[in-house]
Every structure is written in C-alpha cells, then in structure tokens.
Amino acid sequence: MSKYDIVFIGTAIVDAILKGFDPKPVSATGYRADSCSLHAGGEAVNGAIAAAKLGMKTAILCALGKDAAGNMIEAQLAANGVDTSLIVRSADHPTPVTAMFVAEDGSRRSITNKAHRYNFHPERYADAMTDAGAVVLGSLFRTPFDDPEVVLQIVETAHAKGVPVFADTKLPNFTKLRLEDLADSLPLIDCITPNEDEARYYSGEDDPEKMADVFLDAGVGSVIIKLGGKGCLFKNRERSLYLPACPIAAVDASGAGDNFLAGYVSEILRGSSVDQALTFANACGAICTTAVGACTALQDRQQVEEFIKKMSEK
C-alpha cells in the first residue's frame, strides 16, 4: 500500500481576506471593510486540508519560509491531519502573503507579489510523489509549475510509477505560458480542472465543450471545466457530462475549486464512478463558499453526504 492516498504539490500562502471592502475612503488614508482575517491558503494547502477532512491520508509538498507566516501554515496543516514532513522550509525566501478582496456576492480579487515567485523545485523530491495513490498539482501555469521542465519531470516520475496525476490551473501572472508550452506534459496528466476563464484563455474557445476538446486534443485524459454558478462540465474521449451547481448563497468563493478537486480525487480513489465523484465534488465546492476562507466550512465526509441528500430532496 502507498504511504499516502494523495500528495498535493504546489503553492502555500497566507491569505489576508478583506470581506466587504468599501473603496470609498473614510479619511485621507483610511478605508473600511466588514471584516479582515488571516487564513492558510494556496491551492496545495486548500486541497490537502480538504482531502484530509474527507478521510484521506494526505501529504503536502510545498515550500515555506522560516517566518511567522510559514509557522501559521504548517500549524494549520498539522491541526487538520495533513502530513507536513515533506514541507521544505528556507530562510532565504519569505512565505508568500496574498491580499484578497471579497465582494458581497462571494467573488474575489487578489494581489500577489514577488514572494509568490518562490524558487521551489518539487521535481527534486521524486520519492514524495511516487509513494501515493494520486498526485495533485495546484496549479499549472503558476509557480512552481510555470517552468515546463519542472512540470515534465514531475508528471514523468508519477507516470513511470503508475500514479495518476490531477492538475488544476491558474491564469499566468509572472511567466506567460501557453498551453502548447506544456505539450510534452499534457498527455501524462489524467485529469485537468480549469475554471471557465482559464479554459477560455488557454483554449481560445468560448463554448465549454469546445474548450474541453482543445485539452483532450492536447492529450489530457479527461477535463473538468468549473463553471462557477453554472456548475461544471466533465468530458473525456467517450462522454460528456454537465452537472448544475448547487443552489446556495455564496459568502466567499476562495478555494472552492480546490475543495472541488480534493472531493473529486478522494471519491475516485474510493472507487466511485465519475458521476458520483462529480456530485460529491460539486457539494464540496458549494460547502466551501458558505464561510470566509478556503478551509473553513468543509468539515468531513458525513457533512458532504448530508448536504447531497438535502439537495436531492429539494
């Protein structure tokens, strides 16, 4: 048996979330918001915590500075049952911190900085990604996955050991990669999960079905396009499946996609069908949006199952 069910690889940050920010100044230098709170974040952190809450043996491979922000993230990971032994900590680089502005409808805008360009090389830790039931990359086209050679080495290592690879995506910020820049890696990715904006950007298409076809033509095994309030589209070479969103009042959409992917991978590893895994993932993403912070609302697998049951009764 593998040491871990899932290893999440990618960025770990602290999110400073301002909820209900009012852009009108109340003084020469002062502004107001409904609330401001600090949360451990980043795609790998969000996914690892969600999967651990869902009962998976979960580990994270990420880089943190030897600073207060890094201490906060590592402590929160450990408190939620995530194995932190693979974390690389260095005094040479600060832990990234993101300012997140969340609107009343749950949509958000973020501000990144140079600390997000962490010189981290997860491909140097091959053992971490081969002793797992699955590897999740969060997120392609952002550090550390904005280097095609880094991505290729990781997916080749996992593929050689028969470990399935799931990959989320992000729009580029510092390094402007295109889909074709990862042409060698894409056929080694079992499932990719862009949101609608990301899929449009990388595919050049406006229709979700056509967006998915571009990724499939590039060699990816299957595609899940997250459509926000419109649900999601799953497509592989055999079938296409649309699933509507759960009808809820969103408070904060931060990390919803990461919770979605954690739920999907968790259920696939449990032996669920794609349809069942998508329903479960949809519920995880919806639950995440009901509280401020990416790791706040989701509690455990029972909560998700009860949520699905209630949705089916409506």
SSE layout and pairing:
Blueprint: E1 4-10, E2 13-19, E3 35-41, H1 43-53, E4 58-61, E5 63-65, H2 68-79, E6 88-90, E7 97-102, E8 108-111, H3 126-130, E9 132-140, H4 148-160, E10 165-169, E11 191-193, H5 196-203, H6 208-217, E12 222-226, E13 232-235, E14 240-243, H7 256-269, H8 274-288, H9 301-313
Parallel strand pairs: 1-4, 1-9, 2-7, 5-6, 9-10, 10-11, 11-12
Antiparallel strand pairs: 2-3, 7-8, 12-13, 13-14
Helix pairs in contact: 1-7, 5-6, 7-8, 8-9
Protein described:
With 314 residues, the protein is an alpha/beta fold. 32% of the residues lie in helices and 23% in strands. The protein contains nine helices and 14 strands. It has helices at 43-53, 68-79, 126-130, 148-160, 196-203, 208-217, 256-269, 274-288, 301-313, and strands spanning 4-10, 13-19, 35-41, 58-61, 63-65, 88-90, 97-102, 108-111, 132-140, 165-169, 191-193, 222-226, 232-235, 240-243. Strands 4-1-9-10-11-12-13-14 form an eight-stranded mixed beta sheet, sandwiched between helices. The protein has a four-stranded mixed beta sheet with strand order 3-2-7-8. A two-stranded parallel ribbon has the order 5-6. The radius of gyration is 18 Å and the shape is globular. The chain starts with a strand and ends with a helix. The mean pLDDT is 93.
What descriptors fit this protein?
single chain; 314 residues; UDP-N-acetylmuramoyl-L-alanine:D-glutamate ligase; 4-stranded mixed beta sheet
Shape: globular
For the termini, the CA-CA separation is 41 Å
- Architecture, CATH level 2? 3-Layer(aba) Sandwich
String of helices and strands: EEEHEEHEEEHEHEEHHEEEHHH
What is the count of β-strands?
A: 14
Low-confidence stretches: none
Radius of gyration: 18 Å
